Amino acid sequence: MNNVKLISRLKDMVRRREFGVFIIIVVVMVLVGIRNPTFFTSDNWKDMLMYVSILAFISIGQMMTIVTGGIDLSVGSVVALSGMSVGMIMREYPVLHPVILILFGTVFGLGCGLLNGLLIGKGKIPPLITTLATMSIYRGLVVVVSGSRWVVYGDITDGFRMIARGNILGINNLMFAALIIAIVAYYFLNHTRRGREIYAFGDHQEGAKFAGINGVKINILVYTISGMLAGFGGVLWVSRVHTAQANTALGYEMQTIASCVIGGVSIFGGVGSVVGVLLGTLMFGIILNSLELIGIVDFYKLAVQGFIILVAVIFDAILSHRVMERMRKQRRIFDAG
Amino acid sequence: MQDDSVNITRFSISAILKSWEFTIFSLLVVVFIINLFLSPDLFRIENLFDATLTFTEKSIVTLPMTLLIISGVIDISIASISAMSGVILGVCFKAGIAIGYAILIGLMVGILAGLINGLIITKLQIPSIVVTLAMMLFYRGIGYILLGDTAVRNLPERFGLLGGAYSVTFIPIQFIIFIVLAIIFGLVLHRTTFGRLIYVVGNNANAARYSGVPVDRIRLILCVVTGFISGLSGILLTSRIGSARPDIALGNEMAVITIVLLGGVYIFGGKGTILGVVIAALMLGYVHYGLSILNIQEQVIRIVTGGLLIIALLIPTISAKFKVREKSPGGA
Q: Which of A240, B169, B305, B328 is deepest in the core (most CB within 10 A)?
């Protein structure tokens, strides 16, 4: 009984968090809209949503790693590596259908993620350090593979350009992809056994082990998914911006992490929802976009990102300390009664 | 430190595996010999010390980082603190403050940054990696806010001596600073109560707390020291390249962590020696030196560093498997 109450209370908290993010989004939108009315033009929204779409599904992959108590710092490099490789294949074989290129990119990303997962799961290396290393390895590979020759506008075929520009059912392809991935991820995380195991593992690794959950498999799975989504995102990225360079998506991992922590994903593991991440991404995208619209120079972006992550993390820590405190009190009452 | 390891050493595989300092030292010798083949000029003692100029800025940060990781905390904002200190030094100098005071302000910035890190980590009990991840962006961002894509040049010549000059005809001042700091940190870690407490905290923070060890205060002090040395490293680097800019020391955090882990420090805390880290610093420094002699791209060097980091991390897992294998037939 007590447990059920606690769980419902925890759920309440998460729900309130998402609601809070939603309110902040609305407030920021109104403020920026007053300052600069171009914010509400449909062109601006389309640009912003196209940017947010890619960020959204890569952040969902990131969320799964954070829910297990880990982190994936290599996503930015995987985006660049997959985008560059696919761009080069396209340059050599312009006849290839875009769908095949998308498959290639996704498989490249999957490979990168699998390597992360194996090192973390089998090698028992802390995720942050592993992905810090692979981040720089994959980033270095971008330069080595390309021989410092970037993929430029002229290399992009018309069919490939249509990946980002085309529509499905009247929705832009990028948004459509993000939507489908979000729905699949929602179903996977909330309604399948494996998905629930990810939460259980992140909540309490020792306990999950005793419940017969294979931690190695979970680790390999989440990092592979994260890498796969980043690889897929890399293809869409190149299709959207029409170039692939060594510094493509540099620092992107921080944006995905920021989106997650804003969206209520706990860095302590075990807590996080797809809806929260979507709202977090939207809020983060709006903040980045409005910085530009208000006329704040580019150089502030880094500090603002760091500050946002810090505030969200501190907020999260204070909340979770409070929940722990409440649990302790209830246990005391339970023991006494 | 050395006496202990000699006493313990017995001629069996596990003992050799255990004395990691010896392994890393043989690696250093191998790297050294390869470098000699690549460039016979290295054999001249001036060049030998000249080569250290390229990596002493990183190496001095490995010392406090060793203590920090042994105590169970990690700081990945060090490179950003270095950059921020260098930038603020430059900005202060541009504003007309004497260079001596500007250096002091730069060092204070490092201390302050470390203090902020430490306070958030210890007071709010948030994992240090997440805090310093955010701080990594924030401190670097402050550098960019202050200078944008410009740089402060025309720093006084006297200041340039700090990072590039030689003290006793051929030994760079930087290298002397590194050696002196290494001795100080070595003594603190291996010969004082405070040093022993760092191991205690790293082995089991909860047990340490219950036995009355001021866990949070020790970690806070180490964070501040790390910030201070990072600031110093940033100032030395600024002095060596002759201009203050916000994009210096990029990726240094990875190089520093790689050195510390290669030096035999256990990533989860509680294990490691300064001697091992110093040898690892020299080794990685000369690996980079050799690669740059071969005219290899910086990106490839980063791949090598990343690969070495992963190998260093896999060592405990692999050696644990070895131990299990060795024990099981022995125990039967």
A: B305
pLDDT class for B66, splitting at 50, 70, 90?
Answer: very high
- Give chain B's domains with CATH numbers: 2-49+58-331 (1.10.3470)
**Which residue in A140, A297, A317 is closest to B302 by CB distance?**
A140
The predicted model scores a pTM of 0.82
Question: How far is B168 from chain A, CA to nearest CA, in Å?
Answer: 38
Q: What is the value of ipTM here, to two decimals?
A: 0.79
Spatial contact of A291 and A305, defined as CB atoms under 8 Å apart: no
Topology at the third CATH level for domain A41-330 = ABC transporter involved in vitamin B12 uptake, BtuC (1.10.3470)
* Residues of A in Cβ contact (< 8 Å) with B296: none
Which residues lie below 8 Å from residue B117, measured CB to CB, with a gap of 6+? B75, B77, B128, B131, B132, B135, B223, B226, B227
Strand pairing partners for B71? none
Give per-residue pLDDT as tens, A186-239: 999 888 888 888 888 888 888 888 888 888 888 999 999 999 999 999 999 888
Note whether B226 and B61 are within 8 A (CB). yes
Cross-chain Cβ contact A136/B145 below 8 Å = no
**pLDDT tens digits, A65-110:** 999 988 888 999 999 999 999 988 888 888 888 888 889 999 999 9
Residue B254 with chain A: CB contacts under 8 Å: 132-133, 136
Contacts with B65 (C-beta within 8 Å, 6 or more apart), sequence order: B74, B75, B78, B226, B256, B257, B260
Angle of helix A252-262 relative to helix A300-336, nearest 10 degrees, comes to: 40
Domain positions in chain A: 41-330
Contact B140 A306 (CB under 8 A): yes
Distance from CA of A302 to the nearest CA of B (A): 5
Residues of A in contact with B261 (CB under 8 A): 129
The residue count for chain B? 332
